[in-house]
């Protein structure tokens, strides 16, 4: 290669290294302003940040698992399949839920741009809560942390269900084992725990592996969705009309001929039935705050964090809607829709070729996608535990907040959150009702934790909130209030009864779990936490800046430079590294010039 070409290539590489070093320095300087030193490794870019949230949302997992909005309230029997609003819930319900979710997500993205830390909604609530910041952080931390564990438990439960469907798809109809009889309770829990351990290992190895898996997940989800969206309608012997898919509303859950004797929902009001039917979509559209929880591992986090969050929702909407329409158009009968995604796949192949074994390929796509989803659930919840522990918000904080020097990951937090999900799974040994009751805190807990910092930003912190690079401009307040109102509304829907008459087996325990979580948070606050928990607290520059970050935010310290506070001589490690990189780059240039 000519000397001139080598010189040009080396200069380009040097400039790229300098830009990277400068970018790292800016991210670390901003994190320092927000009160924390850089401990996690920044090895994710915008694409990987988006990919983690996209993989966690995993429409193939959420919508595939709850297309019919069904729950087996007893793992030993195959109870409980039902549909509340027919094809309209699948086609237009998804559009409505995603549109309204954006009114919550956009204000969250705006706050993320201003305050890009791993604590996410917990940190935001603490900083924006003013004088009551520590209490707001305590409540939000409880809701988000327990919600994260509940979501992880629910996803891992779905992974095992998909495994059952996958194996059954290879069997003749008479040899298929009902879901509730496939495993004993102990076996189900063991398999469930095994997948949690596997997904924890993926998270513990390295951030680079996580970044690779996130990109692989995006490619797999897109290609897998295309295979199903194109292949399923082609294979289907008959297809539903567009007028039926987009315009037909029917409460199949109250029809004995569809549901079977003894399995009807007892709900007769059409409006109420439609609201409950929306939950299929709402359950799938939660967890996008993971883009914020990996902000301290993301380059240019003030832009990449909020952008990744919004991109994940939009990408999930496109893939999810295509997936839902494919299932609904290809449905051979309403009974298939009530039975669930796996039955739609089986019936399509059986109607065409007399055998459902070909559906194995489609179920394999869903099964692999659910494993990606489980992996990124652990990513998000372990970072939340790490952030909460960093501010001394949990017992054993010193242990949970440690970062492994070799992998650069919070291995202890990963272990802790995996163990929490495994322990929740133990309840299924006694009763699946208990497991579903406890894991129900997942959706409602996260939804409430999203609303709180938005509300605080619009009220307590309205005058002193400083916008970041990503903001909503003059629409910020309007969209924020719409998001708060919607969040409160859908939270109420999430706790409504889904069966009548209500019994201990079909009771919606989400209301009990939400009330219990808030009550526990308030009791522990009054009895003990208020005496020692200060909310987000600074772990860098403690000597010359306000330790409590809620108070620092009110004083405007989170946006001041070191020089503004009389700390001109205090060079951070990241600045030294940037200076060294720049000096090395200059030496390279001089060498090449000679």
From TrEMBL:
Assigned keywords, A-Z: Membrane, Transmembrane, Transmembrane helix, Transport
Transmembrane segments: 46-69, 89-109, 121-139, 145-167, 188-206, 212-236, 301-324, 360-380, 411-429, 435-456, 477-500, 506-528
Protein's recorded name: Amino-acid permease BAT1-like protein isoform X1
Positions of the UniProt region annotated as Disordered: 555-580
GO molecular function list: transmembrane transporter activity
Localization annotation: Membrane
Membrane-related topology note: Multi-pass membrane protein
InterPro entries attached to this UniProt entry: AA/rel_permease1
Domain of life: Eukaryota
Organism: Micractinium conductrix
GO CC, alphabetical: membrane
Chief location: membrane
Keyword Membrane: yes
């Amino acid at each position: 290669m000519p000397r001139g070409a080598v010189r040009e290539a080396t200069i380009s590489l040097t400039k790229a290294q300098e830009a990277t070093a400068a970018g790292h320095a800016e991210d670390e300087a901003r994190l320092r302003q927000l009160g924390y030193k850089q401990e996690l490794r920044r090895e994710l870019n915008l694409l990987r940040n988006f990919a983690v949230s996209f993989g966690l949302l995993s429409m193939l997992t959420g919508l595939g698992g709850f297309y019919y909005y069904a729950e087996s309230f007893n793992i030993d029997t195959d109870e409980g399949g039902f549909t509340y609003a027919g094809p309209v819930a699948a086609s237009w319900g998804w559009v409505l839920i995603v549109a309204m979710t954006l009114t919550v997500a956009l204000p969250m993205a705006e706050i993320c741009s201003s305050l890009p830390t791993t604590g996410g909604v917990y940190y935001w609530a603490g900083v924006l809560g003013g004088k009551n910041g520590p209490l707001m952080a305590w409540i939000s931390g409880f809701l988000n942390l327990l919600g994260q564990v509940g979501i992880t438990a629910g996803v891992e439960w779905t992974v095992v269900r998909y495994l059952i469907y996958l194996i059954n798809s290879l069997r003749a109809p008479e040899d298929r084992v009902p879901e509730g009889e496939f495993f004993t309770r102990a076996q189900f829990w063991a398999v469930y725990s095994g997948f949690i351990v596997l997904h924890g290992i993926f998270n513990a190895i390295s951030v680079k592996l996580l970044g690779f898996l996130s990109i692989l997940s995006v490619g797999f989800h897109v290609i897998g969705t295309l295979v199903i969206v194109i292949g399923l309608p082609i294979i289907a012997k008959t297809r539903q009309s567009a007028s039926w898919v987009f315009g037909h509303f029917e409460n199949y859950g109250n029809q004995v001929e569809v549901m079977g004797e003894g399995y009807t929902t007892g709900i007769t009001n059409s409006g109420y039935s439609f609201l409950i039917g929306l939950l299929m979509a709402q359950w799938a559209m939660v967890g996008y705050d993971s883009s914020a929880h990996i902000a301290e591992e993301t380059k240019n986090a003030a832009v990449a964090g909020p952008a990744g969050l919004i991109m994940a929702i939009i990408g999930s909407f496109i893939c999810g809607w295509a997936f839902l329409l494919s299932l609904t158009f290809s449905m051979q009968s309403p009974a298939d829709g009530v039975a669930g995604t796996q039955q739609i796949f089986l019936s399509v192949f059986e109607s065409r070729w007399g055998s459902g074994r070909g559906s194995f390929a489609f179920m394999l796509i869903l099964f692999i996608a659910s494993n990606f989803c489980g992996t990124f659930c652990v990513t998000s919840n372990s970072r939340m535990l790490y952030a909460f522990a960093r501010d001394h918000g949990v017992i054993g904080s010193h242990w949970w907040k440690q970062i492994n020097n070799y992998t650069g990951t919070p291995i202890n937090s990963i272990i802790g959150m995996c163990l929490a999900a495994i322990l929740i799974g133990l309840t299924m040994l006694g009763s699946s009702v208990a497991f579903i009751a406890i894991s129900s805190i997942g959706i409602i807990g996260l939804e409430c934790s999203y609303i709180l910092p938005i509300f605080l930003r619009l009220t307590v912190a309205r005058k002193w909130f400083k916008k970041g690079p990503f903001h909503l401009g003059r629409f910020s307040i309007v969209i924020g209030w719409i998001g708060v109102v919607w969040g409160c509304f859908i939270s109420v829907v999430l706790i409504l009864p889904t069966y009548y008459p209500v019994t201990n087996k079909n009771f919606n325990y989400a209301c009990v779990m939400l009330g219990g979580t808030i009550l526990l948070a308030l009791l522990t606050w009054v009895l003990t936490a208020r005496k020692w928990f200060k909310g987000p607290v600074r772990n860098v520059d403690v000597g010359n800046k306000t330790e409590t970050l809620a108070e620092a935010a009110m004083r405007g310290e989170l946006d001041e430079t070191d020089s503004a506070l009389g700390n001109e001589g205090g060079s951070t490690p990241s600045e030294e590294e940037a200076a060294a990189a720049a000096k090395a780059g200059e030496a390279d240039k001089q060498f090449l010039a000679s």
